[in-house]
Amino acid sequence: MIELRHLRYAVAVAEEGHITRAAAGLGIQQPPLSQQIRALETAIGAPLFRRQPRGVELTAAGRAFVDRARLILRDVDLAVEAARRTSRGEEGQLAIGFTSSAAFHPFVTGVMREMRERAPAITLSFEEASTGELIEAVEADRLDAAFVRSPSERLEGLTITHLLDEEMLVAVPDHHPRARKDTRRRISLAALADEPLILYRRPTGPGLYDSIIAACRAAGFSPKVAQEATRMVSTLSLVAAGLGISIVPESMARLETTGVAYLRLDRAAGLVAPLALARKKGPASGTLGRLLGIVSRRVKDRAGA
Amino acid sequence: MIELRHLRYAVAVAEEGHITRAAAGLGIQQPPLSQQIRALETAIGAPLFRRQPRGVELTAAGRAFVDRARLILRDVDLAVEAARRTSRGEEGQLAIGFTSSAAFHPFVTGVMREMRERAPAITLSFEEASTGELIEAVEADRLDAAFVRSPSERLEGLTITHLLDEEMLVAVPDHHPRARKDTRRRISLAALADEPLILYRRPTGPGLYDSIIAACRAAGFSPKVAQEATRMVSTLSLVAAGLGISIVPESMARLETTGVAYLRLDRAAGLVAPLALARKKGPASGTLGRLLGIVSRRVKDRAGA
DNA sequence: CAAAATGCATATCTATTGGATATGGATCGA
DNA sequence: TCGATCCATATCCAATAGATATGCATTTTG
């Protein structure tokens, strides 16, 4: 059976044109090298070297073989390197999901940008869905990780890492009486008891929706849900159209939203939009490990700052 | 040190998704296979397989490696095959030379055509030169073989194989008085004693030139050499222009030669153009062996016919 | 021209290691 | 819970890669 050893030896002998010298270079003695070369020639069934009085030289068949052997040896090194890089998470692919409200958060976009820079050989794929759908996708290994909101339910088999809590803002039409007043003043949730509320809710699973309803109840009223939108951005359009007000994560205020004004909520409302990363329990793959590294470093930096 | 064995094993395990089953397929037991896989993983420095309760499955790094390993194993087979084919003379290159007078001989063109058909993977290269130059090129290994005329000098280190003797014809302008008579009748060399002779001679080395002069002397006269041309074809042009007559190998008569008529010579003239193959002494390379095989078969066929 | 040197091949021995057998331990299905 | 499945570990054996010693052919050198 031909082994890489035979290729390495044949290449060395071809380069030296000399068995004894090649043996020295390979760190073995001359006789074993002679034997291995002969064994290779026998396996191939053709002489690769012409034995000259002052050394050896390649036959035409030898040249054909050695030229290819060189490439093969290089390919083996490349294969090993590829495996190492893949293992270290510098190469491969990573499927990431996020809820629409997380997609615009600077933390998430920052992580993504850093991934692109630090590991350009990783092919990233993104998916937007509701928290519930994302959790399901992660469980089913369709996603490697997902940025989700309100990790309320602790799911078996998943690791959910809390990243940060984001303030929530009240979005009101800009002609709304409250938008006229000092927008820096915080208002209480209760002050919005009579306003028609527009909420974002995906067909499936939990999300910010429930947190908002719960917070209103805690503030002593039951919100009047005027509309439900399936995309977060449409929520804001409806607000701009004057159909009601809404409560959205702070990062949403970054979107171009003419016709919408944002009001800060009283801290007592206790309404925050948590951002968390969900992934399968167990050791992370190389590419996922790479992502986790970046995420945890940024969480730490954030805490320090 | 990573060996092809490791690649073969990794590919087998990846394909079966099962160490025990793969071991059976490889004709070894399960424990050594487990060991070899582990050794490979250690050498690479990354796990290639995830041990599952019901078998094993590739990690991302494993997939990256095994995909390449498959190609490498195929390349090794291809390298072996290429060496075998080259050795058998089905592949490689062959530099062949011939004198201008041999280039048109049907024997030579026939051999070349057969080479192309039988061993299309051999890259043929041709060179035209005088017999002397060709002999030199063969000695210096710039040519693998050469079709030459008059192997008069036995050169040390070369094997010169006589292939056939070709009749020589007298080329005369078609308005020449002799061309009017019965062209099938043979004439004697002596009858041409008074004709101005146009001969072909390369700057270097012996050739047909000397044979012709010698034959004339044997016929009892010294030829009047009117012109010397450096290309055989120009010789015929000069004949057509009426500058004199010439003596050329029969195969030259195949060229389109308006204005030239050919006369057969008396056998007593003993003027023949021998065709021989010159090559280095010693065992022939694969590609050259291929040529020699075709040549010798055709010589034999010719003798039989 | 003889002697030394060079360089591959052969012969024999040793040490490494690939592979076999036996067994343990974890997980899964009945 | 018991047996089946399947990988890992431990130990042993056998094949073979490689070491040492030597032979043989050719070439260089004094």
Element layout with pairings:
Two copies of one chain form a homodimer.
Chain A: H1 4-16, H2 19-26, H3 30-44, E1 49-52, E2 55-58, H4 60-88, E3 92-98, H5 106-118, E4 122-128, H6 131-139, E5 145-149, E6 158-173, H7 177-180, E7 196-200, H8 208-218, E8 224-229, H9 232-240, E9 246-249, E10 260-264, E11 272-280, H10 286-304
Parallel strand pairs in A: 3-4, 3-5, 7-8
Antiparallel strand pairs in A: 1-2, 5-11, 6-9, 6-10, 6-11
The first copy, chain A, binds a DNA duplex (30 and 30 nucleotides) through residues 5, 18-21, 28-36, 38, 51-56.
Q: Overview of this structure, please?
A:
The structure is a homodimer of 305-residue chains. Chain A has 305 residues and is an alpha/beta fold. The first copy, chain A, has three domains: 4-88, Winged helix-like DNA-binding domain superfamily/Winged helix DNA-binding domain (Arc Repressor Mutant, subunit A, Orthogonal Bundle), CATH 1.10.10; 92-163 and 274-304, Periplasmic binding protein-like II (D-Maltodextrin-Binding Protein, domain 2); 165-273, D-Maltodextrin-Binding Protein, domain 2, CATH 3.40.190.10. Chain A has helices at residues 4-16, 19-26, 30-44, 60-88, 106-118, 131-139, 177-180, 208-218, 232-240, 286-304; strands at 49-52, 55-58, 92-98, 122-128, 145-149, 158-173, 196-200, 224-229, 246-249, 260-264, 272-280. Chains A and B meet through helix 1 and helix 4 of A and helix 1, helix 4 and strand 3 of B. Chain A binds a DNA duplex (30 and 30 nucleotides) through helix 2 and helix 3.
